[in-house]
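Field: COMPLEX_INPUT
Field: COMPONENT_COUNT = two
Field: RESIDUE_TOTAL = 525
Field: MODE = joint
Values follow.
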Amino acid sequence: MCSHTSTLLSLFRLSQLSDSAFPVGSFSFSMGLEAAATEGIVKDSRELEEFTRGALHLASESDGIALLEAFRAITAGKTDSLREIDQRLYGMKASEENRRMSVRMGVRLAELLHSIAPCYLTGHLREQIDQGAIVGTYPVVQAVAGVVLEADERALFAAHLYGVASTILSASLRLMRLAHFDTQRILFRLAPLCQELYERSATKTTSEMCSFSPTLELCQSLHERGRGRLFMN
Amino acid sequence: MTTSHDRVPEGGLLEMTFRLDNRGRTVLSHLYRRVPIVVQQALYFDEELPTMACVYILSAGGPTLEGDHSRMTILLEPHTMAHISTGAATVVASMSGGRAQMVQRLTLREGSHLEWLPQPLIPSSGADYTTRAEITIDPSATLFWSEVVTCGRLHHGERFAYRKLRSEMQIRRPDGELLFWDNLLLEPSDRSPDEWALMGGFNHFGTVLILAPEEHTAMLAAEISPRAKGTLKQSVATLNKGCGVLVRIVGQETESIVATIRALCSLVRRRVKGHSLPNEFPWRTPGEINQL
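Field: COMPLEX_OUTPUT
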């Protein structure tokens, strides 16, 4: 295990990983917002808030559960379980864009993590990804990061949801007529949802992950086939 | 004291095996059923594919009741073709605290072709219903699998009045490789289905899963477009490794969802078999569902 870190240090480093400047490539994705804005499905800040709220629900019910289960598995020394969690999560992602986003960010985070905080766990993770033993979905790699940074699982869960919301809201500034004040207000208003979503996800296992969100699924499928070029599809 | 919630799980049981006879026709070679499930003999009414077995699954016992745990095991031997539907909508009766479930195991061997188009599911107030489909499919086989789930007995004033609805689907290759799994959970008391990201004000939804040989799936995915406008919305996703396509439809009327699903089935059939799906019999039009 890596060297001991205090709670304060852990929080600082978790913030580093969650920052939009941390180069895992989240800025390249809009999670379907580009198509939603182009097609007039999301037109203003109220609808953007609903879009983001829906994305947070979906993230907590799938990625969030996988994140917590992977984190607990590593903490309990059951790293072999990571493969199953990773495959199950990857198998649940119907959209190509979702699969690509999750793996691209996961593999990038694994590389960065091993570069800035090398230890047995980060090295083992890199090996597993390189050998194709695990795909490297973002939540599974985030769980490894959480253990390495000795983060609390609640803080890790919050960091994950923060990443989802900030990806969408950052994209919205390039796609919609909004000011930074608008997106920051949305982020602030949605923050209390994090606790509720954690309570729901914390007691579930990966066999209970859910993927049903027709409106977001529509936005993602429009984006995969759309002409929008600002964000990856 | 034993309550209805403590009942030992029981319910219908169905086993069907389809096999080719020596004339190249698909026959229902093995059938085992337990009430309330009733299966009519295989019929050959599809003029486009006259060697395909067409089977209707019926329920002799009325709606699905609290405590019912039904199981269906359907096997398609190599190069067989079957079209399976239900005789009427599946109504899940009102429940006071228990639940019911249906487990479906489908196995499609090489070159087989299955069209699964059941009538809609209608969950009544208080219902807690789980369906689970475990599908094993050879890369050379084709499956068109669909379900239509209504918001409830609208004409009894019930809209999302059920307690819990869960629909899980798991698809594997014969060697056990997991291709895709879908898990849908709606608990209206916990989170309103009317939320923007869920049903967004629509009443009913349909799910279509198309698994076909690799040479067909890319074309099928290209031919099916997402729909963002109008009274029916539709998303389209290409599954991992191009093994298939998932289509999700939401709409206000079951008729339009059912019609869309039949059009998709026809599209798949034309691409894979070179034939269209004939028009539905007039007495099986989904308009009847709204009379409930």
